[in-house]
Amino acid sequence: MARRASLESLGGFIQNFHLPLVDLPTWQQLSLKGEFIYIPRPLGKWRIYPNQVTKTYTAEMAEGFYKLGLDFYERNESLLAKNGVTKSDIDRYFKKLLVINYSRAGRYKLIRKDFKGARKSYSKSIFRFGWNEPLWKLRSAIGLIFSVFKKDIEGFTKKIGRVSYK
C-alpha cells in the first residue's frame, strides 16, 4: 500500500519504456519518497491465464526493465552508489535475465507453433548478452534446432522429465 499523497506527488501511476505495466516504475519512484515496511500477509492475488502479458511479452518486458533500471541508476547514481550498486551490477544482472527470458519466449512461441518467432527469440538468447547463463544458451540452441525443423519440443521435454510450459 502507498499513501495517496505520495502517489499523487508522482502524477499518478507511471508507465514508461514501452512496458505494458505501471506497478514497477511507480514503486521504483515511490521508493525515493520514503520508507517501506513489510506486511506479513497477502494483500492481493496474481491472476494467471494463458495469454497474460508476462507470458506473451516476457523478453520485451525484460528489455524494458533493463532500460528502466539504467534510467533509474543514471538519475540516482549517488544514492545507489552509497548502497554499493554499480552500473556493471545492473548490466550483469539484466544480461543474465535476458538470456533466460529470450529462451523462455522462444519456448512459448515454439509451443504455439510460431517457428519464426521462436527462432528469433532463441537466436537472441544465444548470440546476445555475452557468455552469461551457458546452460540457458544450450537450451536455446536445442529449441532453435526444434524450430528449424518445426518439431514439437514438449514431447522432448517430457522424455527428459521437464514440466510442460503452459
Automatic annotation (TrEMBL):
Q: Which InterPro entries match?
A: Nucleotide-diphossugar_trans
Q: What is this protein called?
A: Glycosyltransferase 2-like domain-containing protein
Q: Which organism is it from?
A: bioreactor metagenome
| Higher taxonomy | unclassified sequences, metagenomes, ecological metagenomes
